[in-house]
Amino acid sequence: MTEASITTAKLLALLNVDAARPRKRLRQIEETETTSVIKLNRKRSEVTVEETITTTETTVEEEVIDDDENEDNEGGNAPNDIEVGDLENWSRSHFGNKSSLLTNRTLEAIAPPGEHSRVRWKVDEKSSGPGRTTVLSTLEDREGVIQDAVVTPPVEPSAEILNKLWEPFHTRSEKLPEHLQKLQGVLLPELLSCRDVHHSYISASDGEEQSALRDAVTLHLVNHVWKRQAIIASNNARQAQASKTGSDPPSPDSIQDQGFTRPSTLVIVPFRNSALRWITSYMSHFTGQSNSKTEVANRERFISEFSLPEGTVDKLAEAEGMGIYPPDHVHTFKGNIDDNFRAGIRVMKKVLKLFETFYGSDLIVASPLGLRLAIEREGNSDFLSSIEILVIDQADVMTMQNWTHLQFVFEHLNNLPRDPRDTDFSRVKSWFLDGHARHLRQNILISSYETPQIRALFNDNFRNIAGKVRFERRWSGVDIPEGIKQNFVKFECTNGRDEADARFEYFTKEFFPSLKKSAVLSANTLLFIPSYFDFIRVRNWMKQNASVSVAFISEESSKSEIDRARAQFMKGQKAFLVITERFHFFRRIKGILNVIFYGPPDHANFYSELLTYPFFKKDVEPSEVTCKVLFSKYDAMALERLVGTKEAAALIRGS
Predict the structure, then answer these.
(1) Over the stretch 196-222, which tens digit does the pLDDT of each residue have?
(2) What's this model's pTM, rounded to 2 decimal places?
(3) Cα–Cα distance between 424 and 75 in angstroms, integer?
(4) Are 473 and 133 in contact (CB under 8 A)?
């Protein structure tokens, strides 16, 4: 069966299940008009998908919510002062029911038939400042660029953003340093074009830069949610007016304005501290407006659950700015670093409700692990079936977690739901019904640097017909103390699939034997291995064949194992200490004079840190510090961050 026929079969099965059910509550305005007013101050209990506990709340904030929640449809929650504009123009826009991007030619190009067929992109590069490059990918086929897929970013972002959102944002933006204003000025038009966006060099240690970027992205998310609700409210009113006057109802395709489920925006971040920053930024677009009357429900619970427990001392926060820990380490790990969480946010007229159930949310903020556990527990991913904008922040940090969790989430995005729930299929956009949602979903990817995993995600999973744009930079290399001799050792490999085997063979047959012959490197030497899989392979080989004393530490090691290995190495009882990059990411190791890199670290700061730490001791000469790096041409991304883009190219050429 073809992909289209499979989608049709699944949809028919879903509709049959829906038809067989008793008459259910629809998400339309007619019902809300006839619903009697429910008394305030009532208590209620709810068990959410996000939490396994039952909560009963009677706060003032909840009292406000109860009144609004009688408006069960999405449009009933739209702010009153949002102008919809030209409905026909909206229907032809990127997320409209009649999106002009969806043509037979674009659909054949974005999902070519054949198991091994690949999407074709025309790639153009242009300078976006000193050492900065913007790479634009436009959909094409054998005949060339598809003009229907060519989009033009708005010249004036303010024209595409609701005034009540733009004015406070613009006021905040004007107070930022010039380089941060430029960051927002370059990013916003691309976001509003609805192309996929990857910004690959947001500093991991610059909180102001990250905050400016979050402010722009959350502005885009709130703008999208409010406009979407305004369209639904307008169509609800048209239906109600036709019903009241007995006139002809709106044409069916003109009111297809929803997805299968309510959540339309998703933000994926690695830790609770990251979620705290994103949700705080999201809230600021509601509470930061002049004369804002928006209440935030469950704010105290949110602050409590996404911060450190009361009374806990945050050593990293206390040490910030003192130079005890690297700045990027402090910024990444200060606060709550639990990686299993999820939270839904519902946007209503007067209330922004945190900790809403997934199916009642407009925005979901979660970690890859949190989403995976929720999907596995529920047995489906229906709450992700109608995501229109996806944001992934700190993708580089996620590579230090379990990357398969993120891949699992992508496999479950925009699939047809298994359960119809309260879906009114007459209001579902046709491209959701046809299974084309993933080809219109906007993906926004943010990282401090690129890795092959991140680039593969961008290349293989970002299938937006509108195209995609990537912001790159030329790296200048990291700073290390003068006088240290760096020895970069290249091994040959002609096939990327064989690279791991070729590296291991070179290390075991040539590289490591030469280390054992060295009077300096045969003792008190750190072996740094970026990949955990390579670590396992090298560990097993060294235990059987190395004929030297070795201690091993990885992210899987217990505290007692870590303490024992460190003590044995520092006392000279073990000649070699082998660690993974993930271990160093979570727990920095210091003060070792001889460092061997099995491969260039993805995080360039680790390289400079390990070569700089010995000089914190007194009377250490640069000649006492030795460094060797094993690399191949497939390490180009990591290598350029260590030595600079130009120098990395020369090393790979062998010159």
Answers:
(1) 999 999 999 899 999 999 999 999 999
(2) 0.89
(3) 13
(4) yes
